[in-house]
Amino acid sequence: MTTYNGQTAAVGAGVPRPAGLHELSAVVERVRASVESVIEGKPEAVRIALTVMLAEGHLLLEDVPGVGKTMLAKALARSLDCSVRRIQFTPDLLPSDVTGTSIFDQQRMDFEFRPGAIFAQIVVGDEINRASPKTQSALLESMEERQVTIDGTSYELPSPFMVVATQNPVEMEGTYSLPEAQRDRFMARISIGYPSPEAEFAMLDHHAGANPLDDVQPVAHADDLLKLIELVRSIHLADPVRRYAVDLVGATRNHPELRLGASPRATLHLVRAARAAAALDGREYVLPDDIQALAVPVLAHRLLPTAETQLSRRTAEQVVLDLVARLPIPRPQGRG
């Protein structure tokens, strides 16, 4: 049984409980503890990072320098026994540095493919919006199709595959705006924000003497992650909740304050993330609350406000929150 605004509904009734939710909780708790040993006082940011990971998505961390974006990305990568590559995006970085290139082997008299930095299970892209748009676009095929095509030949990327990218706000010097197609491939965007005074005080004690990343050890294997991803796919999504997600995303496409709404890919990302969030809470079904909680991180970075909206200092996040507040909650299917 489940509850919609105080009403008891049978959305999850009769749904077989996926085997292994307790295993998921145990593995995720180990990863969460490992990451939070490095990132002080940011449990919600860590939770969304884990949600995106279990939903087979990619994560964009956007904030001012020095608040721990790269530290979060590295801590998540080191907590998993996966292959990890880091790409430092700079204006002179070439697309071939990311995807790889074919080099002529004079001994074999043939071209040999040399994989680029994208060939890893966890790819940490540092300051992604400091590279040129041409280099940024080299990630498009990799993030969507999990493959790289060089000289007409496609090469599969390892599984699981996740890009965790950081970027500085576009008003910072030396940055390029990510193209809309690039932003749309990130499942969620979050900001770390400044720590609380207590967390910053604790950070001075824990981080001043040594790099906390040095103590981070893998607490989950890539095979464990693949099993958990498969489990998340089995989380039940009732038709009313599915319709709610479609209506919420659709409402962005004809909103007077937006000149670009969310894409169908955004709808897919929203329901996948909601399934992962339900699994993290130990539930075998998705609630409208899961959709609402993830609406801003999943949708806001894909939207383009109109010039009038920007002049009135309204943000895409505020527009999404207004839609969540106005859109009716799905009516329960039954009572118990």
N-C termini distance: 7 Å
What is the percent of helical residues?
40-55%
Say which CATH homologous superfamily of the domain at 1-18 and 234-336 is assigned. Answer: Magnesium chelatase subunit I, C-Terminal domain
Low-confidence stretches: 1-18
> Order of strands side by side in the largest beta sheet?
5-8-11-3-12
Shape-level CATH architecture of the domain at 1-18 and 234-336: Orthogonal Bundle
Please indicate the percent range of residues in DSSP E strands (runs of 2 or more). Answer: 15-25%
What does this structure look like?
It is a single chain. This protein has 336 residues and is an alpha/beta fold. The chain has a domain at 1-18 and 234-336: Orthogonal Bundle (Helicase, Ruva Protein, domain 3), CATH 1.10.8.80. The protein has helices at 21-36, 43-54, 69-78, 95-99, 133-136, 140-145, 180-184, 197-207, 222-233, 239-251, 264-280, 288-299, 307-311, 316-326; strands spanning 2-4, 7-9, 59-62, 80-81, 84-88, 100-105, 110-115, 122-126, 147-150, 153-156, 162-167, 188-190, 220-221, 258-260, 304-305. The chain has a five-stranded parallel beta sheet with strand order 5-8-11-3-12. Strands 1-2 form a two-stranded antiparallel sheet. Helix 1 (21-36) crosses helix 2 (43-54), helix 9 packs across helix 11 (264-280) and helix 10 packs parallel to helix 12 (288-299). The chain starts with a strand and ends in a 10-residue tail after the last helix. 39% of the residues are buried.
